[in-house]
Amino acid sequence: MDQEELMNELDALVDAMEQSLTILTGTLAEATGPALTLQRLLQGQKSMAQLHGPSGWRDRLLGSSLKLAAIMAMANLNRAVAQGEPDDLAQRVLIDQVLQGRLDKHF
């Protein structure tokens, strides 16, 4: 195999891992609550970055999971507000940052 074929195989493997992690994230979010899942994913991402430095592969793997958890958290928050519960502006800002891809390194 040449370099290009190896990179294509690696890309396909990372894509499959990303899809699997996203499915697991959805399952966890349903079981434990999407806001908690989102917070834990962000904490894990921050810890890994601090321990091992930046990684495009890791960011790619976590990106879809973070967005799914953010969408689920937003739906739960909107439902709660519609039922008369107070709005959580801090959570809305965090969700917006995840969905817009604007998380800074100090969230």
What does this structure look like?
By secondary structure, the protein is mainly α. Helix content is 82%, strand content 0%. The chain contains four helices and no strands. It has helices spanning 3-32, 34-52, 56-82, 89-100. Helix 1 (3-32) packs across helix 2 (34-52), helix 1 runs parallel beside helix 3 and helix 2 (34-52) runs antiparallel to helix 3. The longest helix is centred in the first third of the chain and has 30 residues, at 3-32. The mean pLDDT is 90.
Quick structural gist:
The protein is an all-alpha fold. Helix content is 82%, strand content 0%.
Counting helices, strands and paired strands, the structural category is mainly alpha
Distance between the termini: 42 Å
Question: Whole-number radius of gyration?
Answer: 16 Å
Helical proportion, percent range: over 70%
Number of helices: 4
Spell the H/E element sequence. Answer: HHHH
Mean pLDDT: 90
Poorly predicted tracts of residues:
none
The largest sheet, given as strand count, sense and whether it forms a barrel, is: none
Q: Give me the count of strands.
A: 0
- Strand content is under 5%
Shape assignment: elongated
